[in-house]
Each structure stands twice: as C-alpha cells, then as structure tokens.
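Re: zinc ion structure - here you go.
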Amino acid sequence: MTPAERVKAALTGTDFDVYPVINPTSVAIIESMEQVRAFFPSAHTNSMEMAELAAAGHDLYGFDSVAPYFSVHLEAAAMGVQVDWNDALHTPVITKRPLKSIDDFIMPKSFLQRLEFQRLLKAIEILKKKYSGKVPVIGKVVGPWTLTYNLYGVENLVLDTILEPEKAKDFINEISTIPMEFAKAQFDAGADMITWADHVTSDLVSAKIHEEFLLPIHQRAAKELQKAGPVILHICGNIMDRIDCIANTGFKMFHMDSRNDIADVVKRTESKITITGCINNPVTLAQGTPIMVRKEVMANIQSGIRLISPECALPTSVSGKNLKCLVETAHRTKGDF
Ligand SMILES: [Zn+2]
C-alpha cells in the first residue's frame, strides 16, 4: 500500500497492511534540519525550506505523511503580531501584540494575499507535486480560540469570556473566517488533510465555554471543509472532561495528547471520530530509549489507536533514532481488520 492508501484505509476502518504513522503537527528536528540543510528560523518562512524540511519526515524517517506548517504563530504574524522566529532549538515567541481591545480589530480584506499565508500555500504546492498523491500532505491552521489569544493575549481573552461573553463570542466567530479561508486555500493548493489546532485545553478553559463558544464553529468547519478532505482537530493537554464535545464536532480525526486515558477515549468516541496520537514527546521521544518508544507504540495499538503519531509538535532535540523506531514499530505491525 502507498502511505496515502494506508492512511485512508485506517481512517475509514477498512483493511490496511501495516499501521500508518502520521504527523498532524511538526516532526522537524535538528537532525533532519542538518540532513536537508533547511534550518529554523528560515524554514518557518521560506517555502522551499518548509517543503524540504517537511519532506524529511517521510524521506528520512518513513512517516506516512508530510506537513510543512511548523509554528502556531504563522497566522498571528500575518495579522500583524510581532514574532521572534527564534532559532533551531527554541520555538518562536510573540514579542508584541497590536490589539489592545476587541473593538480595535478590523478584518483585513484579501488577507490570504499576505506573504505568510502565501508561503505556506506554495510549500504545499511543492509537496503535492513531489509526492503526486502517494504521500498525504497535511496542511494546518490554528482555530479561532488559539488565533484570538495569539492576537489579543490569553488572559484578556479568558477574562472577556467571563465579563463580556457575547462580545467575545462574536469576536471569536469573526476571527474564525481566517482559519476557514486559509484551510480552503490549503486544500486548493493540494493539501490532502488539514490539522485544525485549537488549544481549548482544560487547564485554560472550562468544558462549558468550550462547548458554548467553540463547538458551533468546529461543527461548521467540519461540515464546510470536509467536502474537500478530512480535518484533524488538535488540542493538547487533558481533554477527559470534554470528550463528547470533541466527538460531536464532526471532524474526522482527533489528535490527542498522551496524558489522557487513550483506551477509554477510543472506546467512547469510536463511532464518531478517529483518534490519532498519542506518543509522548517530552519523556518518551525526547528523553527515552528506542525500547521505550517501541513499548509505547505497541501500547497505543493495543488501546485501539489505528493512526500512530507523536502527540504534538516535536521538540527539535528529539533523536532521529527514536523517530525511526517509532515508525518501524508501527510498520512492523500488521493491521488486523
Ligand atoms: Zn499541541
């Protein structure tokens, strides 16, 4: 099977040869940057380097997908937030936000023409051409919750949801135009799937606010975007108190963090959404041995995970040895449907 056939089969619950390994978020590491000579920070903003570094995930380590989106600050930067793209070892950080109040925001016309968006679209085009449908190209957007707090500050946003809920809701709704349009443009550029990262995690926001403010937007995104291809919802952290909300979005996949009860989530959501993940990054992949990686991949499969993936964007210090072991373990295990 080609990686694309394998991923599709695992996603639709039909027979597949061996367990697929995908990367809904970044698998760029120092070692891959050195091998393909594409480094952060320029690989955040140069289409050719984005494509080359993304291709390394498949070409060097055997992942069944490639993904050229590396920093959750891409959209914020396009919308005028000052970002320090940092270096190969450190993730980008926001240094200045132009927005002091929700009222100051005006949705710019033709925002998709901005360089930051265009560069990612170009990288997707390059990858689509390179793999011509055999290896799925995964695009990515940050959802309106994450984008709003990147534009406006997380404390301000959380406060607004309590003090001025209707206003905050309208604002989040308005902002959702950006990921919707950006995701559509990525599908048009050749993306086979899109990760929709919205960090409505339980240490930041209650399940009730998640359901009230974000669920309707997620349902709309699932309905509209999935005419073009599957969308993978990504939320880091603990989500045990909002599983039903996630399962009811209509998204095809949920990219989950290893700190959740994996077997329980798979069992409870099986008929509605496919769970992917959930290999631990900071302990297993960044500090563990290949034996630990192998054990965790097998435990994931035994918990009912059909599409294995690291739980979130990898720390760039992860070793290529551990990544190879992650992929090889899954690829040595036959799908038994
Ligand atoms: Zn994450």
